[in-house]
Amino acid sequence: MKIETGFTFELDTKGVSDGGEFEGYASVWDRMDLGRDVVRKGAFMKSLTARPAGKVKMLRQHDTSDPIGVWLGLSEDSRGLHVKGRLIRETSRGAETYALMKEGALDGLSIGYRTLKDSYDRQKSIRYLEEVDLREISIVTFPMLPDATVSAVKGEQETERAKAIVAALNRATAALRSL
User: Fold this and answer.
1) Class of residue 142 by CB neighbours under 10 A (exposed 0-12, middle 13-18, buried 19+)
2) pLDDT digit string, tens, across residues 13-25
3) How far is CA 8 from the centre of its chain?
4) Nearest-CA neighbor of 8 among 99, 97, 138, 133?
5) pLDDT tens digit string along 42-67?
């Protein structure tokens, strides 16, 4: 069985929590990657039904010996394959991945899959993936889709700052009410 890797897409980590949770898109519909493959809407539907999020592996650089977290949710929406995951920060590679994502040094997602149904446009030399068996989603350095990158990572300092701002606003509101 051949497992293909490719299709690196935007990883939106604006909501990365202290526990390493994040979300983003592992695939975006109808966008050609550097390998001239295009994923069609609905390509993951059967796979997501057969294999729940927790059974799709989260790897680093497609290395099967390097699991770094777990997927909490995978779903198709109007844009693509939306993912929610959590890095296991109690492991050295999970903590390292979190730190690298936070600094923007590791900023892509890439899917590992087995093609079940595809078509090929010989004129354009483009392969259209119509149905795939999703096996893993990796956090990667070099994306197949060049504009697919991490936009921001929200870490512990940002969370503490937000809590401090909310507390200050609550104190100000209470002070105004007492006038």
Assistant:
1) exposed
2) 444 566 788 888 8
3) 9
4) 138
5) 999 999 999 999 999 999 999 999 89
**pLDDT cut 70: percent of the chain above it:** 71
pTM recorded for the entire structure:
0.77
Locus of tokens 């994502």: 101
Q: Is 89 helix (H, G, I), strand (E, B) or coil?
A: coil
Cβ atoms of 74 and 46 within 8 Å: the answer is: no
Which amino acid, 26? Answer: A
Which residue has 């690196």 as its token pair? 8
Q: Are 114 and 122 in contact, with CB atoms under 8 Å apart?
A: no
- Could you tell me the two tokens for 169? 């606003």
Compute how many other C-beta atoms are within 10 angstroms of the C-beta atom of residue 144.
19
